[in-house]
Please model this.
Amino acid sequence: MNPMAQSGAQAVGSQPLPYRQAPGPDHQGRSQDPGHDLGLEADIQSSHAANFSESLSSMSESDRYGLDGLLHMIRNEGSDVGAIAIGQDLTALGLDLSQPDHRPLYQTFASPFAEPGSRPIEPEFYIPPCYNVHNVRPFHEQVASFADDTLFFIFYSSPRDIMQELAAVELTNRMWRYHKELKQWLTKDEGSEPVRISSTEERGCYIIFDTVTWQRTRREFVLRYEDLEGRLVSITGPAAHQAS
Model:
């Protein structure tokens, strides 16, 4: 055999052919197979879950749902139950907790599901100077300039408030009287004169402010003076002017 051919055959034979190496542990003893690592992690989690369930089953009902049971859930880091007990790290959701207290969150954190660098939920805005009102007079100084309908609205929308009392005083000054049984305000009809029946009641036509329709309606009925709020006199005649 040709010496050169023999040496060439030896040279070729001395080089190992490439082949797929079977997965095995590396020099530190760790497995190089990803599937093996996932299976090992799943076994560890299953073991944690089994130990957690066993520890809970050995507790009494009061301890299982008390602080002892909560402590076991917190220590069980590999379980979803432990994550529910401990909570979620807000920084893992993209929330920057190092921002100053006066800085709004919407500028840097739109939602846990928002893409990084997305636009904020609310755009920047400012209040125009024309919307800032200064030197507003107190309420009690403006009551006399309000219309009757405005006073009625204040009276019925501000129960047990000083605004209700001020509105009632102004309505009384304008010859309106509050009927305690009807829960409505009424005044005399300028087109007719009530007829006194006795010293405690009279019959006539009156203008009533209806709170349902928010309109003035004309009704004829017998008015008892004791039904009027705080006044035992007729709403007509000189006595009413003196009382108001």
Remarks:
- The helical segments are 3-14, 34-57, 61-64, 67-75, 80-86, 148-157, 162-173, 238-243.
